[in-house]
Amino acid sequence: QVQLVQSGAEVKKPGASVKVSCKASGYTFTNSNMHWVRQAPGQGLEWMGIIDPSGDITNYAQKFQGRVTMSRDTSTSTVHMELSSLRAEDTAVYYCAREGSSWNSGHWGQGTLVTVSS
Amino acid sequence: QSALTQPRSVSGSPGQSVTISCTGTSSDIGGYNYVSWYQQHPGKAPKLMFYDVSKRPSGVPDRFSGSKSGNTASLTISGLQAEDEADYYCCSYAGSSTVIFGGGTKLTVL
């Protein structure tokens, strides 16, 4: 079955960067786009961006452009999301989500809590 | 780009029906049939309930239905059950390879 297993919780200081990983299994890794979505404590879901199967094409939400980089390693079936210049407002649970047929995600990682605190 | 507009909360008694609305614009909901709905229980990852407006993934009870009219999508739950109590999020393709979520609706089963 499809599984997305994310890296563990992180605590970072303001201004630092964080890289969250998402290891996929149970399907052909190069067949699906991957989305990243975050959720601040007590808040709603926020779409961050998408990376295509080859890793050559990415598209980021305007809010994160310049601060986020998504990449993928097909040899390990892993997708990465790096967010830089962290601030307190970036404290959130970050999810990877495999795209289904069309701009929807039927499989999600377990989430990675990133805490930004001085 | 603002989030899609959902009511903050809705409630209903067991057995009743509730509808959650999700209002966008002609640039997102109104422009594409790529509306999806997610259910999220506390501390859990979201679960896909509908995609392409009204297509139900396997395993989702047919008590749930999805629809769209113009710039507004709706999720209807009939025969409410206690386990339906959760947060619900709508989501739409918004063009230029971007996606937008609604602010979320907390469903309380009384």
Q: Topology, please?
A:
The complex is a heterodimer of chains A (118) and B (110).
Chain A: E1 3-6, E2 10-12, E3 18-25, E4 34-39, E5 45-51, E6 58-60, E7 68-73, E8 78-83, E9 92-99, E10 105-108, E11 112-116
Parallel strand pairs in A: 2-11
Antiparallel strand pairs in A: 1-3, 3-8, 4-5, 4-9, 5-6, 7-8, 9-10, 9-11
Chain B: E1 9-12, E2 18-23, E3 35-40, E4 47-50, E5 64-69, E6 72-77, E7 86-93, E8 99-101, E9 105-109
Parallel strand pairs in B: 1-9
Antiparallel strand pairs in B: 2-6, 3-4, 3-7, 5-6, 7-8, 7-9
Beta content of chain B comes to: 35-45%
Radius of gyration of chain A: 13 Å
Biggest sheet overview of chain A: 7 strands, mixed
Major sheet details of chain B: 6 strands, mixed
What is the ordering of alpha helices and beta strands of chain A? EEEEEEEEEEE
Helix content of chain B: under 10%
> What is the subunit arrangement here?
heterodimer
| Global structural class of chain B | mainly beta
